[in-house]
Amino acid sequence: MQLDLPEIIDFLTTHLGDGGVIRDPASVERYTVDWAGNRRGDPLVVARPRTTHEVATIVAFCHRNVIRVVAQGGHTGLVGGALPDTDHPELMISLERLNRVRSLDPLNLTMAVDAGCILQQIKDTAEAEECFFPLSLGAQGSCQIGGNISTNAGGLNVLRYGMMRQLVLGLEVVLPDGRIWNGMKALHKDNSGYDLKQLFIGAEGTLGIVTGAVLKLSPRPSMSRTALLALPSIEAALELYDQARRHCCDLLSAFELIPRACLELAFEAAPQTPDPFDTAYPVYVLLDITASGPVDLDSLVEQLFEAGLSSGQVLDGVLAGSESQANQLWKIRELMVEGQQRRGEHLRTDISLPISSIAEFFADASHRMATLSPESTVIAYGHVGDGNLHFNVLPPALPLEDQKALLQRLETALFELVERFDGSISAEHGIGRTKQRPYWATLSDTEKELLTGIKHLFDPQQLMAVGRILPEIPENE
Ligand SMILES: Cc1cc2nc3c(=O)[nH]c(=O)nc-3n(C[C@H](O)[C@H](O)[C@H](O)COP(=O)(O)OP(=O)(O)OC[C@H]3O[C@@H](n4cnc5c(N)ncnc54)[C@H](O)[C@@H]3O)c2cc1C
Question: Carries keyword Transferase (predicted)?
Fold first, then answer.
């Protein structure tokens, strides 16, 4: 870094105005503490540009003066990517003021937006035009579309609509040297050469800062049915999933696995929440079926339920009779995550596996965790239809350092097993900083060479989101 802090602040204030620069400790707090409240970073300064041009101006300035930069969206990411690095000061670019919906085309089913739009704002805007933006996740009231794109977010409707990679048609990106790449095309088919936008999706801000996007919308579903089914085992859940895929055609939009221990966490978080059943069952499945045309959803769900009952896959079930009952069932899913969060430091993962391996993996991994730490509690649930499990472990009360060491051992053992099952250590949250080492350790030399080559092409000085996904590469390599 060639400039001192007052010079940097002076430049930013000149180009962004007073509200565009934040540096007093009280105001900086919300940018520096992560969602879980247990990690903290320390930025050089927080810049809040309002336009793509302003983002480009700051990034070009940083490039000229060898200043490290990191982008921050809603700061709900769970792998420390948007958290500023304390050892190597970074200028943080918050996209929160770049938050306009640029246009919506109901016939083309597309919407052009600034990167700082909050996901909920995008969903509401689409809905007002009888359209639907399907990305749905617990953090949708705070996360930004630029963060969703940069982490290739998934969520509850991936089964039917795909992840962000499938939902982005065009992108606008400020490159690490400050140039603007305008790829804001609203085309459903474009087969002309390399698909550059896909490089930035899921890149966690390491190759450029996303400033705008053209999103793919769908017709708004006019009907939906939500059911919570009680099952005897994980195996039964997978058999039921197989049935549901065949039975409900492409109308199945969510299929969530919830073992009993996870439901208990929801009741812990909100003790007034009633148990939807009179009896406790080993496993539950929360599913959504939606349609936008005249389809008899009730009979589809009933047939699935009755077939499950007679084959023994299903033991009991609750079908939501109204939107508010459906919301109550989904609320339990949200409360589960809240309950887990209240238990403090724990192993949190978002692994994925071939769907056909989930039951075997579940048994093996639970056994491994119990062998390594009999007092720990496995809390594993997930978007089973995507092969995605949040295989989390709550450790016993221990002195902090011992607890950290235990969680590290459990993570290593779990990730070894994931590799053995040909799975992925990140299906949703990305690599960021917290999974950088285990991720890198699983790559072949060829993969490492290709990835570092791409990074070098975009960011040869290594100034943008350094240490996320890739390790910092020594200069002489
Ligand atoms: C309660 C809860 C539930 C969640 N559920 C899910 C889920 O179901 N599925 C899922 O996939 N994730 C989930 N997440 C994780 C998180 O919400 C998503 O990863 C989200 O996409 C992050 O968006 P954000 O705006 O908060 O990004 P941030 O946390 O601000 O940033 C995430 C990463 O993207 C980079 N970044 C942010 N904005 C930009 C930009 N404009 N250009 C370039 N880089 C950028 C950051 O530098 C960082 O590396 C959940 C999180 C919480 C707290």
Answer: no
Closest-CA residue, ligand 1 atom 41, reads 146
Q: What residue ranges do the domains of the chain occupy?
A: 5-94, 101-219, 223-342, 351-420
Look at the domain 223-342 and name its fold. Alpha-Beta Plaits (3.30.70)
- Fold for the domain defined by 101-219: 3.30.465
User: Of ligand 1's atoms, which has the minimum distance to the CA of residue 35?
Assistant: 53
Query: Which residue out of 137, 335, 381, 439 has the highest number of ligand 1 atoms within 8 Å of its CB and is therefore the one to mutate?
Result: 137
Architecture label for domain 5-94: 2-Layer Sandwich (3.30)
Q: Which atom of ligand 1 is nearest to the CA of 154?
A: 11
Q: What distance in angstroms lies between residue 143's CA and the mean position of ligand 1's atoms?
A: 6
Instruction: Note the pLDDT tens digit of each residue in 283-299.
Output: 999 999 999 878 889 99
Ligand 1 pocket residues where CB is under 6 Å: 35, 70-78, 81-82, 95, 115, 137-139, 143-144, 146-148, 150-151, 153-155, 204-205, 209-210, 337, 428-429, 432, 465, 468
Query: pLDDT digit string (tens) for 196-239?
Result: 999 999 999 999 999 999 999 999 998 999 999 999 999 999 99
pLDDT at position 66: 96
| Pairing of the two strands 316-319 and 252-259 | unpaired
Contact criterion met (CB below 8 Å) for 82 and 104: no
In the prediction, which pLDDT does 294 show?
82
Coil/strand/helix, residue 177: coil
* Mean per-residue pLDDT over the chain, rounded: 94
The closest-lying atom of ligand 1 relative to the alpha carbon of residue 205 is 44
For 234-282, where are the E strands, in sequence order?
252-259
- Contact predicate 473/442, CB 8 Å: no
- How close is the Cα of 171 to the center of ligand 1, in Å? 17
**CA angle at residue 8 from 7 to 13, to 5 degrees?**
100
Name the closest-CA residue to atom 19, ligand 1: 77
DSSP state of 3: S
pLDDT tens column, 13-44: 999 998 899 988 888 888 998 887 778 888 99
Residue 247 CB burial class (10 angstroms; 0-12, 13-18, ≥19): middle
Domain 351-420, what fold? Alpha-Beta Plaits (3.30.70)
